Structure to design on (558 residues):
């Protein structure tokens, strides 16, 4: 079985982003970029499935600018076998990406596609579900556990009230939540080796997909600020203020 | 403008998220129907019919809808989509599971987690864990939207709309429900609680978390939350996580105990009315958003707080 793992290049999770002065987006110049953390978890899960002898090949794919190949190299250094960069300079939206991925799935025929549950830049949380819909496949979103048995995948999902387990007919889509695993760091020898692994370049048109944005961004602004309040000296003072000043107790 | 709101419920009862998503829907347009998809869900449907502003409630019942699996639920919504301009779901784990599937099948973009309706086709939504707010306009005739319910007040009750039974769509038959492991407790639900007390990594263990946080929660009638660090360390279950990828809450009072205040945690609670931070590190970022900060050892402060309340 082949595993397909789509990965996205995003602003590093530790960077505090700033809105651009012209209100047309956030400042991305000279900002540290990294693989979307949920996608790292997805890559790690694929590697574990392969290590357990349940898959033969891991293909990673990214839909984005030329620099997204750095993200793909990271995934290759972690343990993926080959990579596909679907190059576009459009501001991609989840639906467009899902359409490209549908094309990749049809070309590569993986038994399982594992994605991060959401990208930490646009926080959309859509691509996996959309890909599942376009393919007519089952989806196991927000996964904290995946068990493969024959032609079924048992997926435990993190839901609002606790955990839900579903059984999906394969091929299927799984989106990774935080507790699925702890991604490994790529070792230096593996980083060197990753440079020699195959990385194909394609375009959305190669897969017959249109990635033009459907939404119009009118403006981007700073959120309403919250000012730091006061420091209290004691529990008694805190309770007094909550009762009499804030009126919340 | 006709709008369909996908209800959040557990068959027997309707969740507060539905009433909040309804408020957002009523700001988009006035002809709003509510879809209750479930099994034995008359209770939830009757509750939805009482919400002010609901035109009618559509009740679809089938085995495969009992746990609101994404595939049959999306198929059902698609079967109704021709009658509606806009489809709205609360951004709960269930809404987030189903709505993008619907959008893709309709070949339209989805607008996720709106926090404000600017006009019927223009919305505000947070990006980058709430560090920026984007105003986006939908360019397509049909719209699929999820609503961050913490940003909208619940629609009030008092109407009595009709409940119309409708047929479920054919089950795509690719998924099956196995089991739910629901965390049981008598405390209020995190996303609708008036008071929340949250614990962070500084609690040090699951035992200490329970010993120190829970009695104060019970005394206050509060829901219990946790930071990602505390959940990852196993001090608290996953469904207590507050933050960018956990639950987004906006209670009247949020008490953060031993929580440092990572951007991702702040994203989930900074709309709270009053924030209290208790932390021994006076440089902790949580103090930058707290209305009241108390610097000190939580293991001394919380027992004292319990006595004072």
């Amino acid at each position: 079985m082949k595993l397909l793992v789509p990965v996205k290049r995003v602003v590093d999770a530790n960077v505090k982003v700033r809105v651009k002065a012209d209100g047309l987006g956030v400042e991305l110049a000279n900002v540290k970029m990294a693989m979307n953390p949920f996608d790292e978890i997805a890559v790690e899960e694929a590697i574990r499935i392969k290590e357990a002898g349940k898959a033969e090949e891991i293909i990673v794919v990214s839909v984005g600018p030329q620099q997204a190949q750095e993200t793909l190299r990271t995934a290759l250094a972690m343990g993926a076998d080959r990579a596909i960069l679907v190059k576009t300079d459009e501001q991609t939206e989840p639906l467009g990406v899902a359409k490209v991925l549908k094309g990749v799935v049809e070309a590569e025929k993986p038994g399982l596609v594992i994605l991060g549950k959401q990208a930490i830049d646009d926080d959309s949380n859509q691509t996996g579900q959309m890909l599942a819909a376009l393919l007519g496949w089952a989806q196991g979103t927000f996964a904290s556990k995946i068990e493969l048995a024959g032609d079924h995948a048992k997926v435990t999902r993190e839901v609002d009230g606790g955990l839900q387990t579903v059984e999906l007919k394969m091929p299927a889509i799984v989106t990774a939540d935080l507790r699925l695993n702890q991604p490994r760091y790529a070792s230096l020898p593996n980083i060197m080796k990753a440079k020699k692994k195959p990385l194909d370049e394609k375009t959305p048109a190669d897969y017959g997909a249109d990635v033009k944005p459907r939404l119009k961004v009118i403006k981007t602004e700073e959120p309403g600020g919250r000012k730091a309040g006061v420091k209290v000296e004691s529990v008694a003072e805190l309770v007094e203020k909550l009762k009499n000043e804030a009126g919340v107790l | 403008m006709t709008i369909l709101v996908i209800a959040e419920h557990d068959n027997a009862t309707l969740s507060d998220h539905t009433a909040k998503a309804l408020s957002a829907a009523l700001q988009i347009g006035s002809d709003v129907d509510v879809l209750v998809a479930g099994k034995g869900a008359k209770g939830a449907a009757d509750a939805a019919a009482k919400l002010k502003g609901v035109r009618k409630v559509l009740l679809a019942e089938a085995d495969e809808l009992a746990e609101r699996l994404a595939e049959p639920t999306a198929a059902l919504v698609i079967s109704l989509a021709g009658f509606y301009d806009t489809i709205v779901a609360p951004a709960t784990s269930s809404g987030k599971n189903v709505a993008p599937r619907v959008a893709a099948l309709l070949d339209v973009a989805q607008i996720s987690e709106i926090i404000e309706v600017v006009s019927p086709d223009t919305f505000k939504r947070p990006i980058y864990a709430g560090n920026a707010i984007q105003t986006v306009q939908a360019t397509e005739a049909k719209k699929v939207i999820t609503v961050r319910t913490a940003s909208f007040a619940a629609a009030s009750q008092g109407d009595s709309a009709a409940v119309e039974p409708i047929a479920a769509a054919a089950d795509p038959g690719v998924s099956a429900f196995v089991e739910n492991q629901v965390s049981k407790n008598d405390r209020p639900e995190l996303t609708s609680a008036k008071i929340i007390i949250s614990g962070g990594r500084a609690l040090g263990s699951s035992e200490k978390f329970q010993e120190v946080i829970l009695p104060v929660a019970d005394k206050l009638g509060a829901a219990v939350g946790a930071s990602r660090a505390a959940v990852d360390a196993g001090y608290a279950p996953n469904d207590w996580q507050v933050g960018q990828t956990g639950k987004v809450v906006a209670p009247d009072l949020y008490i953060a105990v031993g929580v440092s205040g990572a951007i991702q945690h702040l994203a989930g609670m900074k709309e709270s009315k009053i924030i209290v931070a208790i932390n021994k590190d006076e440089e902790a970022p949580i103090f930058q958003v707290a209305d009241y900060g108390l610097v000190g050892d939580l293991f001394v402060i919380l027992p004292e707080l319990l006595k004072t309340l």
Chain A has a mean pLDDT of 96.
